[in-house]
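Lab meeting, action items carried over

1. Structure of the two-component assembly. Owner: GW. Status: complete.
Input record:
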Amino acid sequence: MENNPKNSRREFIRKGSRISLLLTLGAVGGFSARNITHEKYVWQIDPFKCTQCGRCATSCVMTPSAVKCLHAYDLCGYCDLCGGYLKPDPNKLSTAAENQLCPTSAIQRKYIEEPYFEYVINEDLCIGCAKCVKGCTSFGNGSLHLQIIHRICLNCNECSIARLCPSDAISRVRASKPYLVKGSFTNDAKG
Amino acid sequence: MFQHRILNIAFYSISLVAIVALLWWLMRDPTSKFTESLPGLDKRGVADTVSENVDIGKIFETNNLIYKEMTESWSRFRGNDYDNISKSQVKLKEKFGPKGPDIRWSIPLGEGHSGAAIYKGLVYVLDYNEKEKADLLRCISLSDGKELWKRGYHVTIKRNHGMSRTIPVITEKYIVTMGPRCHVMCLDRLTGNFRWGLDVAREYSSEIPFWYTGQCPLIDNDVAVIATGGKKALIIGISCETGKKLWETPNPEGWKMSHSSIMPFNFGSRKMYVYSAIGGLAGIAADGPDVGKVLWKTAAWNHSVVAPSPVCMPDGKIFITAGYGAGAMLLQLKGNGSNFTINVLQQYLPRFGLACEQQTPVYWEGHLFAILPKDAGSLRNQFVCVDPSDCKKIVWSSGQSTRFGLGPYFIADNKFFILDDEGTLTIAKPSVAKYIQLDRVKVIKDGADAWAPMAIANGYLVLRDSKTMICINMNI
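Predicted assembly:
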C-alpha cells in the first residue's frame, strides 16, 4: 500500500476533529447531567425558630424585602379578635386603620359567618415586618409566619438577613423543597 | 441686544416652568392611590345570639347511680375558698417515680376547656356534645370515671377555640352551670333534677364574650350570683330554690360580660362581690339591706378581653390582669361600711411585671404566683413570683428552660401543680425565695390546649386537655 502523506494528514485532522467533537459533546453532556442531578440550595426561614425581631423587613437587599408573611389557613382559628390583624387591646374589632396592626394594611379581613373571619395576605403590600406574626404567635395559633419568597429572592451567596438573624432561623434548604410552611399545605406552596 | 432678549426668554421660560411645576406639586395628591382602611370593610354580619329557643334542662339520661362516696370536695372554680389552694390534709406524691402517674380513668370530652368540680366522690363537668348539639352536665364517679347521669339542653355551638368553657358550682343541695352561650341551669345536686333555667343573653340583652363565656357561676347562701352585663343589669342574684330574682345591680354604663368570674371578698366590715367586667372593675354589696348595690367601681381597668378573675388580698389590694397586650393593674381599696375608695397603684404592660392571659394568679404567703403570657418578653411563659407591694419586680422565675403555657396551676398539700398546654404536669414546692421543681411528667398523651383549671379531692387530681379528662391518684 502506498503511503500518501497528504491523505495521512487529512486523516489525522479528520480523526482529531471527531475526537474533539466527541470530547466536547461528552463534556457538555456531563455538565448537563451534573446540573440536573446536583442539588441546589436556597435560603429559607424556619418559622419555629423565628422570633419576629423585624430585621427581615430592613436587612434584605431587596426593597421591599423578599420576606413575606404566609398564612397557614388550616392552623388559623378564624377569630374575630385576631392578634395578628388587630393592635393589642384594640378599641374596636373593625377594619379601621387605627385598629390594624399591619403598617401597610397588607392583611385583608373578610367576614365568613358568625363568629368567623378570614385573613388574607396581600403579598404585594407585605414588607415582612413580622408584626402580625408576633401578634398571631403571642395570642393565636401561630398560623401567620414568615417565608422567603423565591421569585423575589436573589439567593445571595451571603444572605444579609441570615447573617443578622438573632435566632439563627435562616438557613439553606434544598431547592427541591424551598419552603418551610406551617400547616398541612406545605407541599403545595409555590414561590 | 439679541443676547439680552435670549436671556429674557430663558428667564421667563424657566419661571413659567417653575410656576407650572409648583402648581402641579401643590395640586397633586400624593395619597390619591392609597386605599383607605375604614370600618366595615370586612362586611361584618349581625350576630344572632338570641333567636334560638333553648329548652334548658330538657335532656336527662341516667345510667347508674352507684358510686363510692368520699369526704372531700372542690366545689367550684378556684376551690372551696376561691383561692386555688386545697386545705385538705391528704398527703400527695411529690414525684411520680419510675412507674409514672397512676391514672385511674380517662374519658373523652367534647372539644373545650370546661373544668371539673368535685363533691363528695362525684365529678361534675359541663361538656358540649357536638353530635347531639347539646350542653350536658355530666355527673361522673370520682373513683372509677363511670357516668351516673347527664342533664342538659340542645343549643348550637360552633367550634371557636373549643366549645365548653366553665366550671359548675356545687353545694350540698344545688348545682348551677353556665353554658358557652350564657344559659344558666340549676339542678338538684344528687339526682340531677331540673329546678330552673335562665337564658342570660336573651333576658338581659347581654353580649356573649368572644369565644363564648368563661364565667364560672357562684352560689352564695343558696343564691346564684351571675354577672350578666348588658343594658339591664351588671350582676343578679337568683334564689336557687325558686329561680326567682332576688336582686340586681344596675348597669348605667352598660359594662359587658367578661370571661372573668365574680370573686367574694370581705373587707372593711363588708362582704362584697368583686367583678372585672368589660368596661371596669366593681365591688357590689353581697349582704345586708343594700345587697346588689355598687360599693365602689372604677373604669380605669377597661380592656376588650378579660379572662382572669380579680385577686383580692387581705390588705385591700386587688390585682387584676388580662391578655392580648392589656397587662395588669394593682389597685388599693380603702374604706369600710358603704364608703369605699379605689385607687390605682400600678398599671403596666405584660413585659414589665406580673400578668396573665387566662388563669388567675395564686396568692400564697403574701406573694402572687402566675405564668407570664407570651408577650412578656424574655420571661414569657415562665412561672414567676412577685411581692404585691411591687408587682413589676419579679422575685423569681422558673428560668429559661422551664416554661409553661396558658395552663392552670394551684396548690395542694404544700405543692404547686402546674399543667402546660401539652398536658405535662409539673410539681413544684411553693417558695417565696426561689423556684423549686420536684417533678415534671407528661400525663396526657398527645395533649393539646390543656387550659381548664384542675380540681382535687381525696387525693384524686382531675384535669383535662381539649378533648380528654383524666383522674390521677396522687395519694402516697
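2. GW to write a short summary for the group page. Key points so far: The beta strands of chain A are 41-45, 67-71, 107-113, 116-121, 144-148, 170-174. Chain A touches chain B at residues 77, 79-81, 83, 87-90, 92-97, 100, 105, 108-111, 113-117, 134, 137-139 (CB under 8 Å).
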